[in-house]
Amino acid sequence: MIQKMLLPHKYKMAGVWMTPLGFVNWAVTQSGLFDNVLPNGGSWQRTTILAVSFFGFLIGLYLLVFSKERNEDEYINNLRLKSFQTAAFGQLVFFILAFTYMAVSGNEPANDGQLELFLILSIFFFWIWYISHFNLTMLRMKNKMHEE
């Protein structure tokens, strides 16, 4: 990965907090748990909460993926590439399985909103897979170094 594209390491902790908080807030708002708290139905307030939490989740993902590690070296660059390749392969397998399931069962997204949600979640799946693979491999590497 090009070093100029990466953010300083201090932004990684912000991403660690923003990603799950944004996702949980978005999920709770989508489930309707905030509807009792909002005045008079609060459609514009609900929409604002949904937008802020969704974009907070996206910005948190961006900060997690594009922040440098403390010691950024060639091994970590190689690990970033391998994680990206693994996530791409995982997403390809996910799409093949999902579309095969839809073809066999006849159970497919009913309207444009469901199809849009399916595609957005598949994009999130890619980045979550990338972050998981990268961080788990880093953790294994650190544990292996401590054992030696």
Sequence-ordered SSE layout with sheet pairings:
Elements: H1 10-31, H2 43-65, H3 74-105, H4 112-147
Helix pairs in contact: 1-2, 3-4
Distance between the termini: 29 Å
Number of separate structural domains: 2
Element order, helices and strands? Answer: HHHH
Q: Can you count the beta strands?
A: 0
Task: Outline the structure in words.
This protein is mainly alpha-helical. It has 2 domains: 1-70; 73-148. The model has no long low-confidence stretch (mean pLDDT 85). The chain has 4 helices and no strands. The two termini are 29 Å apart. Helix 1 (10-31) packs antiparallel against helix 2 and helix 3 packs antiparallel against helix 4 (112-147).
Short account of what is shown:
With 148 residues, the protein is mostly helical. The chain has four helices and no strands.
Short key terms for the protein model shown above:
single chain; 148 residues; 2 domains; 4 helices; 0% strand
